[in-house]
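Entry 14. Structure prediction run on the chain below.
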Amino acid sequence: MSQHPEHQYLQLLQLLIDKGDQRIDRTGVGTRAVFGHQMRFDLAEGFPVFTTKQVYWKTAFKEMLWMLSGGDNIRELLQQNVGIWTDWPLKKYRNESGTDISQADFEAKILADDAFAAKWGDLGPVYGAQWRRWKAADGTEIDQVQQVIDDLKDNPTSRRIIWDGWNVAELDNMALPPCHKHYQFYVNQNKNTLSGAMVQRSADAFLGLAWNIANLALVTHLLARQCGYAPGEIVWFGMDVHLYLNHIEQAKEQLQREPLPFATLEIDDAITSLFDYRIEHLDLPGYQSHGAIAASVAV
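Output returned:
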């Protein structure tokens, strides 16, 4: 009997606990880290939303769809009841205004006030801006995602089917430089399948990585559907992969659990453009997991 694909992730958590290099990080919390790690998931074996703790996959998918839309303001997420990007602009607002506004009040002002949202909800040229509106030297903007779609349809053997978020000239203007920074896609012409790979410079192994894997699988599925392929594999490359010191006990709890069968992604066939998908067009019927495990985000 073959091993459940999720064991790759559990083995990574164990590696970090046992052999991770302990160091103080940017946040001051401290981590145990390894440099360079790979995981592969065959999408024919199910959709890799992890099961050993509950993953809020709808929230993760909303984030990926927001990035694909070119979004760069938290208002677009808050309108979908997604607050995962609020910490960074909230911290900036508190520092610059000298107030101790609550997150709920800050988010309410973002939703209610157009001018306030434009100024304080803006994240700078983060993921979506780079993917859809990379600024060229001549002032034009490059839609990298559309270029990938065009290549998948017209030039599927290209070794340049790529979009990237690591725009060195604009890093200082971003609320957070891209963690999942490089995406590349590969068409197997014998099988007519599309595989996707992602390079992640910084990976929060306990809180963020399950979302990153799910979103890589999602975008690979959606591109495959729109470009006429079956989904193949996803390959994840982690560079600085770390477990925060205040997540170690939670990781140990997760390691006591056995994975459950992966669910199957359902996609609305009526959608004819990658950029028209909304959360209501996606479903994971039958997703089952162990319970959630709470842990705080290091900002």
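The beta strands are 21-23, 31-42, 134-135, 141-142, 162-164, 180-188, 193-204, 230-244, 266-267, 282-283.
Filed with the rest of this week's runs.
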